[in-house]
Design goal:
- By secondary structure, the protein is mostly beta strands.
- The chain has 1 helix and 8 strands.
- The protein has a 4-stranded antiparallel sheet, with no helix packed on it. The protein has a 4-stranded antiparallel sheet with strand order 2-7-4-5, with no helix packed on it.
Length: 116
C-alpha cells in the first residue's frame, strides 16, 4: 500500500486546496483512505473531498479527520482527487494524505466485478 502526502498554505480568504492526480494509463489507484489535517487547529474549519469535481464527502472537522471504508475511490489516469478547506486560519498549513494501492489497468475488472 502506498501513501502520498500533500500540503498547502491557507490563503487570505481562509481556503486551501490540495489535488492528487495520477497520470499513468497503465495504472489505477485504489484509494482506501483520505486523511486531513490543519495546523494550527482552526475551530469551524471544514474540508470537502471531490473526485473529478464530483462530491464524495465533507467534514465539519477539517482540522483532523479521515474518510475511509467502502466503496474505495478508483483514481484513473488524468482523474483528480481534491481536498478543499474553508474557514481555516490564514497562513496555516493544510495537509491531506491518501492511502492507496496501485492496480494494473488490465486487472481492474477483477476488482470491480467485471464493471471496468
Amino acid at each position: 500500500m502506498g501513501m502520498l502526502v500533500q500540503g498547502a498554505t491557507v490563503a487570505a480568504n481562509g481556503t486551501a486546496t490540495v489535488t492528487f492526480a495520477q497520470y499513468s494509463p497503465s495504472l489505477v489507484w485504489k484509494v482506501y483512505q483520505v486523511s486531513v489535517g490543519l495546523n494550527p487547529i482552526t475551530q469551524g474549519a471544514q474540508a470537502f473531498l471531490t473526485h473529478d469535481g464530483q462530491p464524495v464527502t465533507s467534514s465539519a472537522f477539517g482540522y483532523s479527520d479521515a474518510a475511509a471504508g467502502d466503496p474505495p475511490i478508483y483514481l484513473r489516469a488524468s482523474e483528480t482527487l481534491t481536498v478543499q478547506w474553508t474557514n481555516a486560519g490564514v497562513g496555516g498549513q493544510a495537509t491531506a494524505t491518501i492511502y492507496y494501492e496501485e492496480i494494473p489497468t488490465a486487472e481492474l475488472s477483477r476488482y470491480l466485478g467485471g464493471l471496468a
